[in-house]
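Here's my example:
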Amino acid sequence: MKYLSPRTKPARQGGDSGGAGSRLTDKAGLDRLFDALRASGRTLIGPTVSEGAIVYAEIRGTGDLPEGVGDAQGPGKYRLTRRKDASLFGFVVGPHSWKRFLFPPELRLLSARKVGRSWSFAAEPPPLQRYAFLGVRACELAAILIQDRVFLAGSHIDPAYEALRHGAFIIAVDCTQSGENCFCASMGTGPKAQAGHDLCLTELLDEGSPRYLIEAGTSRGKQVLDGLRFPSAGKALLSQAEEAMAACAAGMRKAMPAQDLRELLNSNLEHPRWAETAQRCLSCANCTMACPTCFCSTVEETGDLLGEHAERWRRWDSCFTNDFSTLHGGSVRPNTRSKYRQWLTHKLSAWHDQFASSGCTGCGRCITWCPAGIDLIEEVRALGSPVLEGRSSSNPEEGRALKSPVPGERSEETHEKNP
């Protein structure tokens, strides 16, 4: 497998050939595609409506998709809306990401059973699920490529992630509209799918019933597409799709500041803004759970009451929990100020050192699903603003965090090594 930067932009099928590699289909054609993928032994996962949100779940056909459903988002706000058309993809991202399928929230690693006076250990075999993901947005593709580098590109490969990732068939959907919290254009990750997909759809809504441009991004995607024998798309439709995506990018209300974020964050570790944000932050970890790239986890061992069976499980964790940063002498990040600073500096700064890219793809989930409505873009801008003389915070945590440590005492403001 080739590991690409989210900013890599390989040539898409069709190119300058007038759309010779691009096909056109409709809703019935999509059902034929879905049937072909399920016939190959894959479980089809796509967007559905559940409990008032767009969530990814198993589907069988277009009848399970959120037809005519849109969404409205803002900092700490989310609701579904009713569109005036029959769009199947007329919304942006919801609370779930594809991370939950490739890097499951819970995964058993090991089982142990007592046999006489000894123990028998059995490692969990790699999962056998073969997924087909439908509706993967450009920012989400970039996130998957980032997690590829986390779990597959180093010297230690995660066998469960490797099995699930290699078995996944990805159908991307280009974005032709943006939400209030989207900023993928400023991160170089969207709104057009760039890499990592097998097929890519672009929904066209110029007529009564939606039509779909479909292009192959890999050889196995091309094989599936060729087998369906969809008609070729004309150059005019390709131009229409490109114009829609350009309008989507131009219409984004948010943009990450165009500056060296590593330098900005590393030179402002004592900025008063950290304490001000800590007064609003609940340390609930919603941002890390919703983020498609966060990968922190913990390992727990459980046993039965008879002491004859034990299991080892990996579960999602967060840098906002107390136990996550607990060492032999206690937590090295004991307050909300230090936890939020760890998350933001790791995501936008130290991630470059570890994985050669930002840890943010501009999906906006951390803004939408923060119950306090904290906007990381506004936080970055505030950190880049000059500090007014005499500025202080009423947050009692700040006073403790900024005091000079006594000899032999660990300072809370030591810039910890990122996980």
Notes: The first helix runs from residue 27 to 39. The first strand starts at residue 23 and ends at 25. Residues 338 and 413 are 7 Å apart (CA to CA). Residues 1-19, 392-419 have pLDDT under 50 and may be disordered.
